[in-house]
Specification:
11 strands; binds zinc ion; N-terminal domain of MutM-like DNA repair proteins; 289 residues; 5-stranded mixed sheet; 2 domains
Amino acid sequence: MPELPEVEVVRRGLEAQLLGARFSQLEILTPGVVQAAPDLLKQLPGQELLAVMRRAKYLILVLSQDRILIHLRMTGQVLVTPAETSKALLPLPFTYYQRPLNNLPDKHTHGIFHFADQRRLFYRDIRKFGRVQLLSAPQLDQWPALLKLGPEPLENTFNYQTLASTLGRSQRNIKAWLLDQTNIAGLGNIYVDEALFVAGILPRRSVESLKPAEIRRLLKAIPQVLQKGINAGGTSLKDYLHPDGQRGSHQEHLFVYGRGGQPCFQCQQTIVKTTLAQRGTHYCPHCQR
Ligand SMILES: [Zn+2]
């Protein structure tokens, strides 16, 4: 499942490839997954892509007039065909299926944005939990799921004071607390396990038991592991691909996530895999207290 770093890498890819592009139409193949009101659909042609933003795990495409909100959820992918390909051929060296993705739209493609210069943006999603929504600017501003989100951990508003006050005296375990998007936006299972390892905190510790020094370590560890993920191009565990179809390499640099039964890089003791907050949870029993 794409988390903040993966979505940020996709955002940068879309920005690099499509900024300034002019939309010509949106072709909806699966109406439940790709949603657009008829009046917005009608006024899409001619609108320019002015910015590609990210809030938590959401992508927000800012058009001259309207907005496109994309949430990839479990298996969503956005893929761009270059202008020179007239057929739906993508020069992809690697995909989830480990074969070139060269016959788009396939049965997992749910929507196609067409651009004036013949480029196309495909929304593909095997499990169909993701959503692509064409919204007006006021609709986006009032979008309930966005309003509920906690602070962005890579922004400087994420400081000791905000973190400590949000943590409060909760009796929940820190793993579940960090997964909750209303506390901190954008963290998922991989980066929570990684951040807790870097901070030296056991995932089952209750929030109220955290000492100020531990909160400070967590405050430092969260942006650190997210930035490391972004720098590595994201973690490609299953379906996550960059908009050009390339994979990330962060899966090769994880400290604990997915490493149950293997030796800890720091102390050589065995990484434990357990279930916490209904999620596979990985930690080092020696390095984390
Ligand atoms: Zn260790």
